[in-house]
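Throughout our pipeline, every protein is held as a single compact record rather than as scattered files. The record that follows is passed on verbatim for readers who wish to inspect the format:
___
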Amino acid sequence: MAAGERGVRVIIQGRVQGVWYRGWTVATAAALGLRGWVRNRDDGGVEAVISGSEGDVETMLERCRTGPPAARVQSITVRDWRDEVPPGFRQLPNAP
């Protein structure tokens, strides 16, 4: 991670599948110039890795607490992510 950058792994729980949460995450993260990915989890949650400038990552985390209009976020778990993240932000297949 370059100086001034932050990477996080986020688990979002609540009503976050079937409400366009992943698509919203891709669009929102791309608009902020962030790198990473998002996918559904088998437990009904959504998982994302988000990387970029500290300020933009914080902005994204705040937006993830609400998500798209149909979502009902109950909790967010944030952990540091130290691995490199390739350019772009994409949606991955569901987690096993």
Remarks:
- The chain has one domain: 5-83.
- Residues 57 and 79 are 12 Å apart (CA to CA).
